[in-house]
Amino acid sequence: MFSRACEYGLRAALYLASLKHNGYVSIREIGERLNISVPFLTKIFQKLTQAGLMQSLRGPSGGVMFARSPEEITLFDVIVAIDGPDLFTECVLGLPGCGEAAPCPLHDHWKEVRTPIRDLFASTTLADMARRIQEARLRLTA
Amino acid sequence: MFSRACEYGLRAALYLASLKHNGYVSIREIGERLNISVPFLTKIFQKLTQAGLMQSLRGPSGGVMFARSPEEITLFDVIVAIDGPDLFTECVLGLPGCGEAAPCPLHDHWKEVRTPIRDLFASTTLADMARRIQEARLRLTA
DNA sequence: CCGTTTTAGGATAAATGTATCTCTAAGCCG
DNA sequence: CGGCTTAGAGATACATTTATCCTAAAACGG
């Protein structure tokens, strides 16, 4: 479904959102906390900052933090920033140019299920998830 | 969403189902018709035959054909034979052991959308698709 | 100002997925 | 039987993803 990078990015974003603490958090701390390779996670956060979702600061007491409120960042934003929009736009059979004009056999069926997927991710904010995590003590690590 | 191999396998299966002709069809013919690498497609059909969905015959007038009626083969069968069941079983965040007992934050949300996906593919047979293809002249190639 | 900490960015290595190649086995036909 | 055709199976390239490494660049603190 998602690339490994995207899974890591989602978990990291959910972890940050679930912290009371607002301010910079080092990527090393996040990686160690979630058992994710720190250098790889650094690359992922670069995508998130370049997409405008996060901001970063170097040096001691530096790290990453949200560029806007977690209330305003959706799971869809994170997914698209890392994996791109293909999952939500491309033909499920990989046919270039598949669309209403020249649909593949699965086009109509797939449309009915892709839209709910997109809506789910686009309507769920990091703050929503953070509340669920804190209330139900949900886990972000194995 | 699906691997390239799975996209190819679905297109090939839909192509075969849409043929009136029942009997062996050579993989070379399928590959050339759908613009898919013939050696790679051969590997994919090996998975489908090993999964019991197709049967094969070597030599002239050989090729591949369905092992059971296209009325009894679903898209789900093809997908699982090629990509495995992970898409329908594994945690969307990649957490091992995620389930009702120890759910990840997305578990419940995702369950609501994964089940419809699974149902869609599991309830659509190759024969269903073949009818749609013939009626609406839908395309399987770019 | 200099050493330390941290992210940024490019280059490199390992792993997986995609695609090709070669040889074998099976089936057809003369 | 002998030559041709086709799928099977293993080995080999190629591409992409995943993961690591190394050198900056920026920030802090003595």
CATH topology of chain A: Arc Repressor Mutant, subunit A
**Poorly predicted tracts of residues of chain A:** none
What is the average per-residue confidence, as pLDDT of chain A, rounded to a whole number?
A: 96
Tally of extended strands of chain A? Answer: 2
CATH class of chain A: Mainly Alpha
Rough shape of chain A? elongated
* Helix-strand string of chain A: HHHEEHHHH
* Strand arrangement, major sheet of chain A: 1-2
The biggest beta sheet of chain A is recorded as: 2 strands, antiparallel
Quick one: CATH superfamily of chain A? Winged helix-like DNA-binding domain superfamily/Winged helix DNA-binding domain
> Count of helices of chain A?
7
* Assembly annotation: homodimer
Instruction: State the CATH architecture of chain A.
Output: Orthogonal Bundle
Question: Into which percentage range does the β-strand content of chain A fall?
Answer: 5-15%
- Give the domain tally of chain A: 1
Which pair of chains has the greatest number of interface residues, and how are they split between the two chains?
A-B, 37 and 36 residues
Structural class of chain A: mainly alpha
Radius of gyration of chain A: 17 Å
Span between termini of chain A: 19 Å
Helical fraction of chain A: 40-55%
